[in-house]
C-alpha cells in the first residue's frame, strides 16, 4: 500500500466528509426494504449475503480443462488487450489484441506523482452516491481501461500483399482489415490469427520476448520478437509479399531540442541486416534525457529487402525497393524503416518469417538517480549491450537457444490437466516484471514500484505477497534479500529492515516478517545452504527484531508499527501475530540448518507459546480478531472484532514453504469459512454502494472478497477515531484475494478457491479491461503475483533444494494429474496416475536444466504400501535403489540410497506394483 504521507489526503478524506446521510436518498430509494439508518457512514449495515447462490453447472465447469482462452474481434474483445511483450525490467511494451505494439513506456517517464500508471489520467467514478475523482494509483485504469488505439504512439505493423484473381490486395495486420482476429494468450507468448473469407492467405502472428525460467539474464533483453506465418488456403500457388515496419522512436515526442536529428542506419551483421535508429546533433543536456538512446529493427530472413525510410505512406509493399547496407538517412520528424520478404507459397504451404525490435534507453528517471545511487549508472542491459543493435545481434546469434527454451517453457506450462483459465490467471501476473514497474540497475540490483510509477522502494509489505518471482526467477528474490533487505534497507543497530529502503526511515512489522519467510523460500529454491549461511548473521538480527516486538512476552507481537494498510495499529492483531509466528517458525528451521541450535530453541519456544495464545485469545469462536491494547483500547483505527481478509495469512505462508501449522486446523477452517460467508459476494455492488470510501477495484455486477467487514454490525467497529485508511476495508484488492484463494486451496476448500480465482479472472476479461493488468495502487501491481501461490497449492508442491526434497499432493484431479514444476536448477512436468487396485504411478520429466534429489514426498497416499519391494523407481531405464520408505504425517516419503541426478529429458518414474 502507498505510504499515507504520499496519498493526496484531500481526495481520501473527502470521501469521508461527503459520504454521510446527506444525499443518500437516491440510494435508499433503490433499496426501499432497508431502513435509512443502514446508510450512516459511521455504521452501515453489513449486507453481503451468506448464501452465494452459485450455479452448480458453472461451478462444475471451473474444474474442466476446457478450451484454450481466445479473445475475438467478433466479440469486441480486442481493444483493451495489452500483454507485456518485452524483457524483464526493460520498460513496458504492449502487444494489442490485433497484434500491433502499443504504449512504449520505455522512455523512463514513470515516477511517483508525475506519470503514474500506464495512462496518467484521472477519471470520474460514480460510487453509488456521487461522482468522485479517481487517480491512476486509485484505479482509474480499472474504471476506464486504456484503449490500445489511443496509446499507439509509434508506427509499427505488418502488411500482407497478394495478387489474386486479377486483383492486388493489401491487408495490414490490424483489426479493421480482417473478418476475424483471434488472440490466444499463453503468457509469455501469444498467438494471433487473422482470417478473411475473401483473402487467399491466413496469417498467424506469434510474439514473445525470450522468457526462460531460472535464466534471468536471457529473460531480461530489451527486445520483442514477432514471427509471422503465412498460410496458403487456396488450391493454387500464390505469391505473397510481407512487409514489417517500425518507426524511429528515439527522442519520441520531444519538442525542446530542435537541433536533434533522427538517424536510421542500415548495416549487415553475421548475414542479416539491421536498421539502427539513433539521433544526431544532440546537446549534452539531451543526452541525459530518458528518451535518449537507440532502437533497432531486423528481419532474420536472408532474402529480406530493407529500406531506411518508407516514402509511401500508408504502406505500399509493391513499391518497396532494396537499399544497400551502410546507407544512412536523417530526417528530423517522421521516419519509418521496413523489411519486405517475397514468398511463393505452394498449395496448402505455410511459411514463417521472423522479425525483432529492440530498444536501449539507459537513463533512469532523474529522481530515481537522486534517491538511489545504483540508478546513477543506468540499467543492467546498458552494461551488457552498447546499443539496441547489439541486443539484436545477441538475439539473432543465440536465436535457436532463446526461442527453443522460451517455447519449451510455454509448452511445459500448458502441458497440464489443470484448467486453461486457472493456469492463465495464476501465472499471468508475473508479467509485472516485464513492465516499467521493475528495474535492474547496472550494479545488478533489482528494484520495483508497488504499481507502475507509484509507491517506491520495493516495499516489503507489498512484495512479500508475491509467490511467482521466487519460483520462476529465484535469483531476483535472492538479490532483493541481500542487496536491499539486508543491504541498503538494513539497520545493523536494531535488525530493522526499512520497508522502502532509501525512501523511508521506518520498518513495517508485516514486511519484516515477510522478508524472513521469503528468505526461507529463497533458501529452499537454492542448490545448497551457501545463501543461508552467508546471510545468517544479519538475518538472525532481523529475526531478533521481530522477537523483540513482543513486549509482554506472550508470543504475540504487540508493538505498534506500520503495516500494509498504511496505519500504525495498537494491540495484538491476528494477522500480524500469525505472520510473525510463521516467520519465527521459518527462522527456527533456518537456524537448525545453519547449525545455530540455541537460537533454534529460542524460536521454537516462542512459536509454541504464541500459537497457543493466538488460538486461545485471538479466536472469537468463529474467526481471528484484533485484541485491543490494554491502555489505548479502541481509540485508534483497527480491525478489532471484524472479519479481516488476512487474519490467517501466517498459516497461508506455511503451505508455501512446507512448514508445520501455526494455527489449529479447525479454527483456521472456521476463519476461512467466515471470510467466505461474510466477505465474499458474487456481486459486490450492493456492498460498495453502502460502504463508501474505497477505491474501485471491483464494480457493481462483479464478484470479489471485501477486505474487512463488520458482520456483527457493531457500533464503532473499527475504533473511536477512524481515519482515511478505513477506505481500504471496503475494497476488493486482488493480491489479498489471491492469498486467501491459495490458502483455501491448501486447506481443501477447493470450490471456494476456484470461485475466488475465477471471479478475479472474470473481472479482467478482455471484453471489460486488460486481462494482463491487475490493478491496485497503480497498474501491474506487485501484490497480484500472489496468484501463483494458488497454483503451488493446487499441485500440493513442496521443494527444498539443499535437502534434495521434492513433493506433490494434487488437489484437483489427483487420479490423472499433470502439471509443471520449477526447482533451483531445472523445470519440467510431473505426472500422477491412479491405476487399478489402488496402485499409483508418479513421473518427473525434466525439460530444462538439472535436478538433484534425495527423497520424494507424495501426499494423499494413505493406501500405498511402505514395502520397498512393492515400489519400483527408474531413472530412464536404470533402477534406483531405495534407502527407506516412511510415513510423515499425511505424506509418504521415499528416500533414495544415493543422490539422483536428473538432466534435461531425463525421467524419474515411481511405480507401486
From TrEMBL:
GO terms for biological process: carbohydrate metabolic process. InterPro entries: 6-hairpin_glycosidase_sf (IPR008928), 6hp_glycosidase-like_sf (IPR012341), GH116_catalytic (IPR006775), GH116_N (IPR024462), Non-lysos_glucosylceramidase (IPR052566). Residues 82-401 form the Glycosyl-hydrolase family 116 N-terminal domain. GO terms for molecular function: hydrolase activity, hydrolyzing O-glycosyl compounds. Signal peptide: none annotated. Residues 510-788 form the Glycosyl-hydrolase family 116 catalytic region domain. This is Uncharacterized protein (DUF608 family). It comes from Sphingobacterium detergens.
Amino acid at each position: 500500500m502507498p505510504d499515507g504521507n504520499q496519498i493526496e489526503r484531500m481526495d481520501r478524506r473527502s470521501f469521508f466528509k461527503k459520504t454521510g446521510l446527506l444525499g443518500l436518498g437516491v440510494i435508499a430509494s433503490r433499496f426501499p426494504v432497508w431502513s435509512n439508518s443502514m446508510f450512516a457512514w459511521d455504521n452501515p449495515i453489513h449486507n453481503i449475503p451468506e448464501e452465494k447462490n452459485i450455479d452448480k453447472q458453472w461451478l462444475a465447469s471451473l474444474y474442466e480443462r476446457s478450451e484454450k482462452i481466445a479473445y475475438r474481434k467478433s466479440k469486441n474483445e480486442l481493444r483493451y488487450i495489452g500483454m507485456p511483450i518485452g524483457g524483464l525490467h526493460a520498460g513496458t511494451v504492449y502487444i494489442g489484441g490485433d497484434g500491433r505494439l502499443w504504449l512504449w513506456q520505455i522512455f523512463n517517464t514513470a515516477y511517483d506523482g508525475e506519470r503514474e500508471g500506464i495512462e496518467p489520467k484521472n477519471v470520474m467514478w460514480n460510487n453509488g452516491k456521487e461522482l468522485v475523482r479517481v487517480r491512476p494509483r486509485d484505479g482509474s485504469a480499472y474504471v476506464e481501461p486504456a484503449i490500445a488505439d489511443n496509446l499507439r504512439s509509434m508506427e509499427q505493423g505488418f502488411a500482407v500483399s497478394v495478387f489474386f484473381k486479377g486483383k492486388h490486395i493489401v491487408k495490414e495486420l490490424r483489426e479493421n482489415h480482417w473478418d476475424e482476429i483471434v488472440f490466444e494468450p499463453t503468457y509469455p507468448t501469444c498467438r494471433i490469427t487473422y482470417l478473411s473469407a475473401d483473402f487467399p492467405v491466413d496469417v498467424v502472428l506469434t510474439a514473445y520476448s525470450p522468457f526462460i525460467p531460472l535464466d534471468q539474464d536471457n529473460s531480461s533483453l530489451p527486445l520483442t520478437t514477432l514471427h509471422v506465418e503465412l498460410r496458403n488456403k487456396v488450391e493454387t500457388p500464390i505469391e505473397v509479399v510481407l512487409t514489417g515496419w517500425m518507426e524511429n522512436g528515439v527522442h519520441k515526442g520531444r519538442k525542446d531540442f530542435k537541433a536533434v536529428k533522427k538517424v536510421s542506419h542500415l548495416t549487415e551483421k553475421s548475414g542479416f541486416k539491421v536498421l539502427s535508429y539513433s539521433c544526431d546533433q544532440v546537446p549534452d543536456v539531451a543526452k541525459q534525457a530518458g528518451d535518449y538512446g537507440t532502437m533497432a529493427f531486423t528481419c532474420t530472413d536472408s532474402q529480406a529487402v530493407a529500406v531506411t525510410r518508407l516514402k509511401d505512406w500508408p504502406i505500399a509493399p509493391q513499391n518497396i525497393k532494396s537499399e544497400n547496407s551502410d546507407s544512412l538517412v536523417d530526417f528530423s520528424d517522421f521516419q519509418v524503416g521496413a523489411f519486405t520478404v517475397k514468398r511463393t507459397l505452394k498449395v496448402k504451404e505455410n511459411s514463417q518469417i521472423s522479425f525483432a525490435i529492440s530498444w536501449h534507453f539507459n537513463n533512469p528517471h532523474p529522481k530515481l538517480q537522486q534517491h538511489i545511487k545504483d540508478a546513477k549508472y543506468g540499467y543492467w542491459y546498458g552494461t551488457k549491450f552498447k546499443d539496441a543493435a547489439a541486443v539484436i545481434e545477441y538475439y539473432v546469434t543465440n536465436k535457436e537457444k532463446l526461442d527453443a527454451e522460451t517455447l519449451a517453457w510455454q509448452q511445459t506450462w500448458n502441458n497440464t490437466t489443470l484448467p486453461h483459465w486457472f493456469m492463465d490467471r495464476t501465472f499471468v501476473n508475473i508479467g509485472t516484471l516485464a513492465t516499467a514497474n521493475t528495474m535492474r540497475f547496472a550494479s545488478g540490483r533489482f528494484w520495483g514500484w508497488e504499481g507502475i510509477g507509484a509507491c517506491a522502494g520495493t516495499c516489503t509489505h507489498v512484495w512479500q505477497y508475491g509467490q511467482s518471482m521466487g519460483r520462476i526467477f529465484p535469483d531476483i528474490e535472492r538479490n532483493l534479500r541481500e542487496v536491499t533487505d539486508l543491504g541498503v534497507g538494513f539497520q545493523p543497530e536494531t535488525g530493522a529492515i526499512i520497508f522502502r529502503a532509501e525512501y523511508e526511515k521506518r520498518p513495517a512489522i508485516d514486511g519484516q516478517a515477510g522478508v524472513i519467510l521469503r528468505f526461507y523460500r529463497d533458501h529452499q529454491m537454492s542448490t545448497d545452504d551457501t545463501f543461508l549461511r552467508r546471510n545468517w548473521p544479519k538475518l538472525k538480527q532481523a529475526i531478533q527484531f521481530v522477537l523483540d516486538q513482543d513486549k509482554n512476552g506472550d508470543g504475540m507481537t504487540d508493538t505498534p508499527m506500520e503495516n500494509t494498510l498504511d496505519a500504525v495499529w495498537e494491540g495484538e492483531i491476528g494477522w500480524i501475530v500469525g505472520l510473525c509466528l510463521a516467520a519465527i517458525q521459518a527462522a527456527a528451521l533456518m537456524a537448525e540448518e545453519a547449525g545455530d541450535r540455541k537460537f533454534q530453541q529460542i524460536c521454537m519456544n516462542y512459536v509454541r507459546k504464541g500459537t497457543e495464545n493466538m488460538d486461545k485469545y485471538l479466536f472469537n469462536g468463529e474467526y481471528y480478531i484484533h485484541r485491543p491494547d490494554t491502555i489505548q483500547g479502541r481509540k485508534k483505527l483497527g480491525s478489532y472484532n471484524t472479519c479481516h481478509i488476512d487474519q490467517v495469512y501466517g498459516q497461508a505462508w506455511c503451505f508455501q514453504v512446507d512448514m508445520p501449522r501455526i494455527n489449529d486446523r479447525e479454527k483456521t477452517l472456521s476463519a476461512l469459512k467466515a471470510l467466505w460467508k461474510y466477505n465474499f459476494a458474487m456481486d459486490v455492488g450492493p456492498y460498495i454502494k453502502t460502504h463508501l470510501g474505497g477505491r474501485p477495484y471491483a464494480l457493481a455486477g462483479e464478484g470479489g472478497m471485501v477486505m474487512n467487514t463488520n458482520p456483527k454490525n457493531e457500533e464503532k467497529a473499527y475504533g473511536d477515531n477512524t481515519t482515511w485508511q478505513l477506505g481500504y476495508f471496503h475494497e476488493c484488492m486482488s493480491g489479498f484475494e489471491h492469498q486467501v484463494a491459495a490458502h483455501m486451496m491448501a486447506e481443501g476448500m477447493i470450490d471456494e478457491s476456484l470461485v475466488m480465482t475465477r471471479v478475479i479472472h472474470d473481472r479482467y476479461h478482455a471484453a471489460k479491461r486488460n486481462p494482463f493488468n491487475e490493478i491496485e495502487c497503480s497498474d501491474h501491481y506487485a501484490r497480484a503475483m500472489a496468484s501463483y501461490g494458488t497454483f503451488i497449492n493446487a499441485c500440493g508442491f513442496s521443494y527444498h533444494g539443499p535437502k534434495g526434497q521434492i513433493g506433490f499432493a494434487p488437489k484437483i484431479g489427483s487420479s490423472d494429474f499433470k502439471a509443471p514444476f520449477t526447482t533451483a536448477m531445472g523445470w519440467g512436468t510431473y505426472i500422477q496416475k491412479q491405476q487399478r487396485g489402488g496402485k499409483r504411478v508418479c513421473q518427473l520429466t525434466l525439460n530444462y536444466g538439472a535436478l538433484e534429489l534425495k527423497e520424494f514426498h507424495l501426499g494423499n497416499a494413505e493406501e500405498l504400501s511402505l514395502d520397498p519391494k512393492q515400489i519400483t523407481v527408474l531413472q530412464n531405464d536404470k533402477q534406483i535403489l531405495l534407502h527407506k520408505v516412511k510415513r510423515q504425517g499425511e505424506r509418504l516419503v521415499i528416500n533414495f540410497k544415493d543422490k539422483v541426478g536428473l538432466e534435461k529429458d531425463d525421467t524419474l518414474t515411481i511405480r507401486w506394483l
